[in-house]
């Protein structure tokens, strides 16, 4: 911490070391006599600060507990101290305005499984997480894809196929690397796109060789294909795994390969994907589906009585979009 303070050009500082999960309190200043440290209890620092016009302010630098009972007591203590100060006062720091202590340590206390039973403890929660994502992303042995694909007409022409299967060049790899955003979270390799862009003149040959090996052999090292799945809350208080949105943090090599495939597919997607798919393609907006659904239901409600009956079917969007098969 002192090295950080020095690099920020603050000649004076005072640091209270962290206790357990509590963060450290650090006060930095530039003029020697402008700050006087008065009291240093366990969870806050009290100081007198003199401003540019010689006005004195009482400052309370705090790190409030994440436990509700302690936090309430500390707030009450702060209130009484501020009331007793005759001059101006300022309170700043980390007030830990969170729901409960478990949010500080992370993790799930419990989760509802697929059959509606409540599971608690790290081992049971881990089992349910693996089961849930195994069902979504795992292959279904009973699924016969040919029954679905045989009913779909071929849309990829020979020219399209030649474009999609052409040899990937070093320029394709470089384009993929420099098109990717640099501020995304890293995968298991711990590397960011910014590193590869900054040192492309050093690592380019190795990256191009790795990508070429994949496209010629159709094989990818297991270590490269590893990824971290992070869960983003859909609700404030999640009860089941469906209340989380998973995102995958991939290794950079896997991202580059995926970007190259995306670039090759982008020029033919408009031609091979039905017009009924109104999202995720340039020039198409998902809100069009809402308008179409509204018009169809309006027609069904207003149709003459002597016409043929009609029926609307609501699909399970989770099964349609959250699963591989």
UniProtKB/TrEMBL annotation:
SUPFAM superfamilies associated with the record: DNA/RNA polymerases, DNase I-like
Coiled coil: none
Pfam families for this protein: RVT_1
Segments forming domain Reverse transcriptase: 233-325
UniProt name for this protein: Reverse transcriptase domain-containing protein
